[in-house]
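Q: What would this chain look like folded?
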Amino acid sequence: MNQGILLELERSLRTAAEAELLSRFNRVSAEVKADGSLLTAADHAMQARLEQELSTLFPDYAVLGEEMDAGRQCELMAAEDRGVWVLDPLDGTSNFASGIPYFCVSLALIVRGSVQLALVYDPVRQELFEAQAGVGARLNGAPLGRHLPLTPLQHGIGLVDYKRLPAELARRLATAPPYSSQRSFGSVALDFCWLAAGRVHVYLHGRHKLWDYAAGLTILHEAGGDSVTLEGVSRPPVDLTPRSSAAALDAGLFREWCTWLGVEPRAD
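A: My prediction, written as C-alpha cells:
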C-alpha cells in the first residue's frame, strides 16, 4: 500500500478512536444484543465514522462491520474479486462500558481470502499495532517479535478465555495449569497484539469471530508467532465461521503448548 495513504489511514484511525471512544469512556450505558454481548453508542459512532472515512480513502473496497446485518456480511465476503475492510469499531465493549481501560479498534483488509493489512489501535495507551502481509509487524513503528527472551511454559503467563472452552479442557487448566499464572483481559484483537509484543506467552480462546481475530492474529503471525485451532487446523480460511485459537509467539513454546493441549497442528 502507498505509504502516504497508509499514514493517512493511521491518522484517521487514531483521531476517530480518540474522538469517538475516549470521549465516551466511562460516560455511556450499554444495551444487550441478541447474542448476549453489549453494544454502546460508541460502537455505533465509531463504525459510522470509519465506514465513511474508509469509503472516502478507498472507494474500491467495501466495509464489513461487526454491527452490520449478518446477511450483508455474507454478501460482502462472497464477493471475492473485491477487497473488504473488516472492522470491529470497539473490541472490548464490556470493558469499555464498565470503565476498564482495555479496548481497541480493529481493522483488517481482506483481498481474495487473505488479510493484506491489519491495524489495531489502543487509544488509552496510544499504541498502534500494524502489519502488512509478508512485511512484518510493528508497534508505533518499532518491529515486533525481535530478540525476545525465551520463557518456558512453566514460567509463562497464559492469556486464556475460559468461557467458551470445552468443559474438560477448562477443568484441566483450572486444576493443573501448565503455566505460572493466567489472565483474561476481554479484547481478542488486543490480546493477540499483546502476545505479539511478548507481554504474555501463550494464548487460548474457544470461539471468536472474524472481526475479533482478523487484524490481531495477522499481527501475531507477522511478528513470527504461530496459531492453531483446537481441532488442529493451522491456517483455516479467513471467513465468517467462528473458530478457536491456541497461540504463542515463540516456536518452541508453541510446540510445548500444543503438546499440553493435545493438539497436533496440520494444514488443511
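The domain at 153-261 is CATH 3.40.190.80 (D-Maltodextrin-Binding Protein; domain 2).
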